Structure formats: C-alpha cells, structure tokens
Amino acid sequence: MGGLKKSGRWQKLEKLEKYGVWLYKKKLPPAPGFCLVREAEFQGFRCRILIHFCHFPYQSFLLSFQYSFVAVGISVQPDITPSAAMGSIEEPKKQQRLRLPWIETPLIESTSLSKAAGCRVFLKLDNLQPSGSFKSRGIGNLVRSHAADPANKGKRLHFFIPSAGNAGLGAAFAASALSYPCTVTVPLNTKPVMVKKLQQAGARVVQHGVNLDEAAVRMREMMKELSDHPTPGGTEVVAIELHPFDRQQIWEGVSSMSDELAYQLPPAEENDPCLHKALPCDAIVCSVGGGGLMNGLIMGIERQAPMLEASANNASTNGTTSATTASTSDDNIHIIATETRGAHSLAASIEKGSLTSLPKISSAASSLGVLRISQKTWDYYNSPPKGIKTHSLVLSDADAARGCLRLAEDEKILVELACGVSVEAAFGPHHQPETDVPPAKKVKLSSEGSAPATNGETVVPGINKTFLQQLIPNFGPQTRVVVVVCGGSNVSLSMAAEWREKLDAGWGSDDPGSIVVPPTSA
Question: Which portions of the chain have biased composition (kind: Polar residues) (predicted)?
C-alpha cells in the first residue's frame, strides 16, 4: 500500500493497519446509491471490500491499489471461501493462501437478446469456469474448505464423488488445482466422451453399476479400502465424499456470483427502480436441479442487503429519497427458477405442498436430473429473504433446445439443455399463430412428469405475454434481467445439429404448455 499520495483538499482520516486500507474524506455533491464489491489480497489473505455509494453530502474515498471509489460505509470481510467455519480473517497466512479453483466470469449485456426479450438482458457467463460450469464455484469451495480445515493438516486428502456430469468435472478440476487426487465413480452407461473429459481433468474414473446409486455404493467401498490401508510412511489418508449440491460450503462458493454481479451490473441511476434493491437488477433467471445455484445466488443477495439498507437510511436522513421511485417501484429481486418437464422436482414439491421426490427422471436435460431438491432450496422458495421473490417455471426439452440454439446463433455460445432452459425462459413462450392456440386452462401435476404441473396457470404458446412480463412487475425496456449461463459439458456440435433437425420436424409442437407457478411473498 506504500506510494499512496494525498493532494489538494484530501484529508487523511484513518489508516486501517489490519487491512492496509486508507480512508479519505472530501465534500462532494450527492451521488446515486448503489453498492460495489472488490476483491484484493491484503497481508497474504484474500478479502472482499464492500463499498457503498449513497446520497450523502460528505462522502469518503477509499483508495486501494489503482482503484478509487466513493464510499460512506466500508466493511472489509474475509473471502467467503473457505467458509466462515474454516476460521476468521486473522488466521495464519498459510491457512489462507489456497488458490481459488474458480474464476471471476464476465457479465455482458446482449444487444440481440435484449431486443428479442423487450428488456435489458445480461448474461453471466459461468460457462467459462475451468470445469465449464458454475460447479467450479460450489464444488471448488467445498474442496477448498476441506483442504483449509486445520483438522486435515498433515494428512493426505483424497476426494471422491459419484457423478457422470458437471459436479464430477467440478470436483476433478478443483482437486487438481489444489494438487489433490480425485476419484469419480460413474455408471457403466456413461458416455465415453464424458469419461474422457473427467480423465483429462485429472480424475481417476471408475465405472460401476447401472445408475449413480450403484456407482455411489462402489465409491464408498473404495473409500473404506483406502482408509483401511495406510500409505508408506504412516501418513494418514483421509477419504472425503463430496455431495454435488447439498452442502453449506457449496452455496457459499456459488454466492460469489452475486458478489460479482454487485459491481459488474451498471449502477442504478436516481429514480431507477433498481436503486432500492440489494443488486441493481430486477430478476435473475437460473436453472434448478438440486438447487445449489439458486441457494448460492439468494445467499449472496442476502449478504448485499445490509449495505443497501444503510444507504437507504442515510438517504432518508438527508432527505434525498425519491418519493416517486419509492412509491411506484417494486423493491424485490425476482428469482426465476427454471426446470425442464421430467426433471421438475421443485415444481412437484410446490404442487404437493411439501418436499417430495420424483419417481424418475424423464427429461433429456440430464444435469437437472435430481429426484429431490435440497431442504434449503425448499425453504428459500417458500420463505425467501426480504427483498426477494421466488418463482418456478417449467419448460419442455424442446424449449430448452431453442434456448441453446438461440444462444449459439446470437452469442456464439454452446451450452447444454440444462442451461438452455434458462435462456429460453427470458424469451418464451414460443409463439405460434393465435388461431392455432387453445385457451389456457388449469392443470394438475402428473407424478410422472409427462404433463404440465402447477397450481398456477398453464401458459400456452401464442399467449401475448412473455414469461418475464407475467412474473416481473412494471416490466419494460429498462427492466434488467440477468440470465445465469451456468454452462455444462453435456453438449456438442452434433447434438446441437440434432436439436435443430428435431425442432424443424415439429419437436415440441404438441407441448401442452409451460408451467408458471405463482410467486412467493417476500
């Protein structure tokens, strides 16, 4: 931090020795209120600086390396990884220097997709993670938290996971990045291309059984064998099983996406409805399999909210709150949880009114193929934090394929069906001539997932309102929607070509309708 200079009317107020941060103060005109987050490395550990812009005549300036930000409230928090359970920001340097097995990904505003959707569409490109999907954040943080656990000091860790998809790749890349071995057990029917990808990522791949349950049984047998046979030299080997989505550390890792959105999204202007939201956006569209992505996003938004409240209090005290904005805006961020029919475990639970399991997976979007969502996902859906509303949207496999092809054609990005369903959610329903469309009607859930399922309304192709218009209040050209491009490796050019041929041949034309479940209350 040496070399920082003050000049003119700058007054040095305080040096925070602990963090290496200097705080300055200068009289400036009021600025719109919004929040930024920056990551930096201070004294050998990574920390996150939460910086709040708000209406206030006397604002502070934080100078950190090459950055300068207007700020009133500044709090320096430890990086959310490893998790808080792993210790405080003041732990020894050697426990905090583990590299992150994921990267910060770009957020781009798509002109073509915005025009098609009738609003501002931002794409969060987590398909660019090392593993090809957002799993690098969650599984990566889970691996990293075990590696940073003092209880594992001096031990040889070996990670195991039963997965034939993105979770396995996330584990393999994370373990390899931190120089640990990883074994992935997969069913015998796993595609050779996926086995090859796992091996290239550094994993030992063991094929066993007809499904993941049988593969998991074999995995636990190998874990026991490893634990029962110490390595030469007497070093203890710790075999660690990784869950693909239902762990606190996974959600904490995914929550880093919300932190990135806080400073990647354009700041809200005065009188902008987003001014009073934890993030400067109106909605986030994300895919739901087990619910890890949704959980992490909500957890991150919840972490941003206290700074927003502090800004609102300061603005109110100084009489700068816009009465028009406060009285007419919707202060909620709408989380639109998308699934494909046949992998709709969240929607099935909503219909039943309690957490339930699907009898089987019939969707081609295999990465969404979780029979039962996590308890945390169910809790978040029914009782989201203040400032958040949750919605469930179920589309067909054909819709998901349309989303994949739309993204490929407009943005030259190739993703799998599990991701394409969120893309299509921002543009659907797929329109057909209204003369060919029967009226909308109420439907009941099919336990097999073969029919639309909701206690809400079936949205039939041809209805004038898009999904976003139905779900987001005051929808218009300035509405901001973030689509999480979660990525995935179960895709190829030949698969995309096959989807195009099937759609041209009428795939999805007999779709009985998409499923929109009424929102929860904030």
Answer: 447-457
- Tokens representing 243 are 């869950």
Instruction: Out of 88-102, 276-290, 297-311, 350-364, pick the least confident.
Output: 88-102
Q: What percent of the chain has pLDDT over 70?
A: 67
Bridge partners, 339 (sequence order): 394
**Gap between the Cα atoms of 36 and 261, Å rounded:** 9
| Predicted model pTM | 0.76
Domain ranges of the chain: 11-79, 107-132+246-517, 135-241
Which region holds residue 14: left if phi is over 0, alpha if psi is between -120 and 50, else beta?
Answer: beta
Say which residue the tokens 């732990």 belong to: 91
Structure tokens given for 111:
């002109």
Q: Look up residue 519 and give its DSSP letter.
A: P
C-beta separation of 340 from 400 below 8 A: yes
What's the CA gap between 410 and 206, in Å, rounded? 39
Contact 392, 427 (CB under 8 A): no
3-state secondary structure 177-195: HCCCCEEEEECCCCCHHHH
CATH 3.40.50.1100 holds for 107-132+246-517 = yes
For 82-103, how does the pLDDT look when each residue is reduced to its tens digit (9 = 90+)?
Answer: 333 333 333 334 444 678 999 9
